[in-house]
Structures
1.
Amino acid sequence: MHASSGSQIMKICAVILVLLNVIALCVLVSVLSKKAAREEYPVYFAEYVVPLSEEFGIDPDIVFSVIKTESDFRPEAVSSAGAVGLMQITLSAYEHIVSFSDRQYSQYAFSDMTDPYVNILFGCRYIRYLYDLLGNYELVFAAYNGGITNVLKWLKDDRYSENGKLTHIPFPETENYVKKVSHAITEYKKIYNGEYYNA
């Protein structure tokens, strides 16, 4: 009787031990998975992105996603087209922003675009401008990559648009860019849920 009882206790202990090991493994996998996701979609420069996003009424996930897609968080990045910094500000975009903004912007030179704060300031200002003009973030992302003139032209062409929305983007690079930024936004929301500083 006692031997049977002892054997039953041993079996129960073994089952509990297996369950604990499974739970520990699941926790470890979850932690490693979250760590890998945060390495893939980091929130570097959150000290600039979050307050500047809020200042311009933009979801920080959008700004992080544009930075991720544009430069992969490299402040010194320069494209073949001469776009500079985290949000890849071009000379024409810089000049455009300075022309319609207050004096705060004219104190910065284009050479300042490698400075993370200045670059994000200009990037957020440009996104806000595009949104006020276009009223839709898919169009904003298309204009950010493919140019405002092209987007406005596509919106007037029923081969590419319907009811103020793009049904087809004729530039493959721009189409891919819009998909990448949109996907990154989904990932940022899922990974951080608005908690950037405790990442």
2.
Amino acid sequence: MEFYGVYILWLRDLKRYMRARSRIIGSLGMPIFFLAFLGMGFRRAQIPSLEGISYIDFLAPGVVSMVVLFTGTFSGVSVVWDRQFGFLREIMVSPISRTTIALGRTLGGATTAILQGFLMLVVSFAIGFRPDFLGMIYSLAFMVLIAISFTGMGIAISTIMEDIHGFQLVINFFVFPIFFLSGALFPVEEFPEYIRFLTYLNPLTYGVDGMRWSLIHFSEFNPIIDFIVIGAFSVLVILISTILFNRTEVG
């Protein structure tokens, strides 16, 4: 029963994603602009820590991670939406546990984030990105961990929010600093020392670095450390989101 409940909630989110074609295309707009214009604008820039690597190759894994981050985190808005329209109350009184509901919503949001990230990876080929195709298999593991981590964060925040607009404001407050301090756009080594310390505390930094190692074999940290940190963070976030979801009240 519990496993089936997770599957049904996952399938519901997946179907909603597949039917929203405007959402699929629209959510790629800003990342494509980042990749195209930053990639072209800095294509001749000489960044000391990127010797021998084109900026477009450095940037693309970060932009793919950005898509996964934003899609996963903003998937929590569906929980707020369901609370407002009564669907959340209906599934709360069903025979399945709240833990199952939280896991189903997290996996559903994470799957849509992974699909968006993979779509962005394909689009990046047209802009000149040339990854290691075997490395794309490794990148999928990091993509999954990033998606689960930040979908769980979105679900956790949604449990304490009752207004959609308020949720979006709070999410932006968290997401943009996480993104800009992750090394997705510029090497961590190029940040001032006091900013660099913040990047080390940012779990997305390790997800981006793992993605970059997988796709272009460039990393600023040990890939094993990347995997352990983002993996541990994903488990922690799932636990927190599940606890908060179990305590949430639906009027």
3.
Amino acid sequence: MIVPVQLAFRNLEPSEDLEELIRTEIASLGTFYPRITNCRVVVEKPHKHHLRGQSWHVRIDIGVPGKVIVVNHAPSLRSTLRRMEVDQLSKENEVQVPHKDINIVIRDTFAAARRRLQDYARRQRGDVKEYEPLPQARVVRLLPADDYGFLHAPDGAEIYFHRNSVLKDGFDRLEVGVEVSYVEEHGDKGLRASTVRRLSH
């Protein structure tokens, strides 16, 4: 099935490599939901006057019968916090921040789109499972003084969580490397984790 595609690049020249990557990712969406009617992707490069370390902005609008599913990877609290940390690192470490690579940002955004399409397809079919395990991730960074941390999900996404998202006031008992379950939330500011529960002891 051929999906009508609209691509827009803002503050950067269109690239054949990026277009090919995006079209390949769009084609893969059809395996998760075959009734896509159209897809629009906007890739935006931060303005030069924005603070150093600003993340790319990728937005995907997926048309399905009677609905548009919107997935954003936008500059957010998470990327702002990361930028603050990056500014404190050496130049060598700074260039290794993964979300400075637009290819990774595009893949992460499409990974979120696939999850959204799978959820949408399940709801449409009326699939109700007796038990669907929560996603799991590993704590990769904790900043207790600032009341937040980051999880590393199996698909490579780095997900922000706040102290208040950890069940049973367990934030202070978390350590880097600990496995947790969580509920993934999508919002205008990107991915975040809620209902974080420690799995390992």
